[in-house]
Fold this protein.
Amino acid sequence: MQYAEQCIGIFCNFAMFFGNVNQNKLIIKLLERISYTR
């Protein structure tokens, strides 16, 4: 049960992170450039 709760917590943080990214399109462009350079 603890592992499942931990996964849900990580998922919530992940969702909040992407929510912030959706508000800031510049971060998306930076991440795309970083992924293309690799």
Q: What stands out?
A: DSSP finds two helices and no strands in the chain. The helical segments are 2-23, 25-37.
